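Need tokens for this chain, all 95 residues.
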Amino acid sequence: MKPVFYNNVEYQQILKKVKELMQKAEDSESEEFKELSTELIQYFEIMHREPLSRLIKMVERSHPELIDTFQQDFTIKTLLDLYDFNNSEIQRDEA
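Here are the structure tokens for all 95 residues:
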């Protein structure tokens, strides 16, 4: 499968930059900034987790074989892992 926008190496660089930015926010001396950045990240995560969960459940019902394909794509697997939707979690959720 061809990458849509970024290849795996570029995507890994993006992940590295996100980690650096998160660390910078955590290391900030401003408590207000730390709280704001933490809250922003939490809401960003919620905003993505819910629709991702719904998409996965739809795929599981309609085309369960695609979950294995998802796990073979680095960027998709990274996203699923980031939101704790690895293959065993998905199957356990349906049980």
